[in-house]
Amino acid sequence: MRASYWRWAGAALVLSVAIAVALSMVGEEMSRSVGGRIATMASSLVSQLRRSMAAAEPGVVHQTLVLAEGAGGHTAERITIDIWRARVEQDDFSDVGGSGTALLFYTPGSGKQRTDNATTAAALARLGYVVVALDDVEQVPELVSAGVRPLLFDFTSEAAYKITLDSADEKVHRQALRLVEVLDRLAELRRRPDGPSWLESVSLDRVGAFGWSLGGSTAAEASVLDPRIIAVANLDGWLFGRAAHGAVTAPYLLMLSDFPFPSDAEADDATPARRYEARLTRRDLTEEFQLVQRPGSLGIRLVGAVHENLSDFALGLSFWRSWLRADPVRTKAIIEACLASFFDHHLRGRLPAGCLEEAYIADGVQRFRTIEWPRPQAARAPT
Fold it and tell me: How far apart are CA 260 and CA 373, in angstroms?
């Protein structure tokens, strides 16, 4: 039996004992109130144990590739990417028009590495996509040495808030340019006689992009910069750059964690940190609401999910407390299925299926039509 099984079995035992002790120390009423979360934790532990016992799924090739400097591109430095692709013949996964294998770009959260959603990348590769991921700019040694600094979300004053917005706009734009540069370099690599054989069948003129957290904004911004990016998925990220101001025209999928939408009172809170974070969230929700109302677009909220559920982080033991809110394995499965349905429709020309169907219902998933959104005119512009 695999070592990971015993690791998870031990963790399950420890957590179960801790939960039992905690329940014995609270009153009957509180015990009833946490019953739902205990059930969610039990489901999470079972899912994790099953995941640890499952044999590794074959059929996915994962490799790292360094793209040399391009000629006259947006950036001069080498760009390291990770690639996930199916091991089977690529023709088996061509879109309805037979134009080649669909390509998806992935960008991570702010300051994170390109592998922070490797599970989802592999899942999409098993469905026939080629997934290419690049690091956040803060992880690129050449850029760090050139002066790139970590993005800090500082809401402690009006001045700090404005600096945060400007810095985020600049960073998202820079990262989006790198994504477009990777697409250009892949096209250049395919033209070379010694280019990789797997790239020959990949469609480079109709691609998708998705990202987690700030990476979701990067994906959206990249679609503004390059018309080859025809579909975008944002996994729980605020929008910045031109994407935050009505410039996105590509079909758009938004998946949100279960965070409370800010009220009018919070947007006018006396504490600057709460006030400006609420205003940024309100601004973002207003723009996101407009995007998901368009044909071919969709917005859902994952009930109980935390921000890290939309990455691989919530699968790790360090986030075990979040398993009281949402089963991380089940949540991952919902996310991956919805991504596949969205990109299948827009890149492969398939009929709307899964989460794109009007009659779609899944436990723990809310469509935006069932959520009270702020009216557009209620949004507050940055002050």
Answer: 11
CATH architecture, range 59-378:
3-Layer(aba) Sandwich (3.40)
Q: Is the pLDDT of residue 346 over 90?
A: yes
Give the chain's radius of gyration (CA, Å).
22
Q: Which residues pair with 256 in a beta bridge?
A: 301
Structure tokens at 358: 């009007």
Q: What's the mean per-residue pLDDT of the chain?
A: 85
* Sheet arrangement for strand 207-212: 60-67, 79-86, 130-134, 103-107, 207-212, 229-235, 252-256, 298-302, 365-367
Q: Domains of the chain: which residue ranges?
A: 1-55, 59-378
The DSSP annotation for 234-275 comes to EES----GGGGGT---S-EEEEE-S-PPPPHHHHT-SSHHHH
Give me the helix-helix angle, 272-292 and 158-191, nearest 10°: 40
Q: pTM of the full predicted structure?
A: 0.86
Please give the Cα distance from 166 to 101 (Å, whole number): 37
Task: Report the run of H or E that residue 278 belongs to, with start and end.
Answer: helix 272-292
At residue 47, what are phi and psi to the nearest 5 degrees? -65, -40
pLDDT (0 to 100) of residue 233: 98
CA distance 298 to 255: 8
Q: Residue 221: helix, strand or coil by DSSP?
A: helix
Please give the pLDDT value at position 87: 86
Is the dihedral angle over the CA atoms 72, 75, 76, 79 positive or is it negative? negative
Rounded to the nearest angstrom, the gap between the alpha carbon of residue 367 and the centroid of all alpha carbons in its chain is 17
Instruction: Give the DSSP letter string of 126-159.
Output: HTT-EEEEE--GGG-HHHHHTT--------SSHH
Give CA–CA dist 181/78, Å, rounded: 10
Residue 377 is predicted with a pLDDT of 44
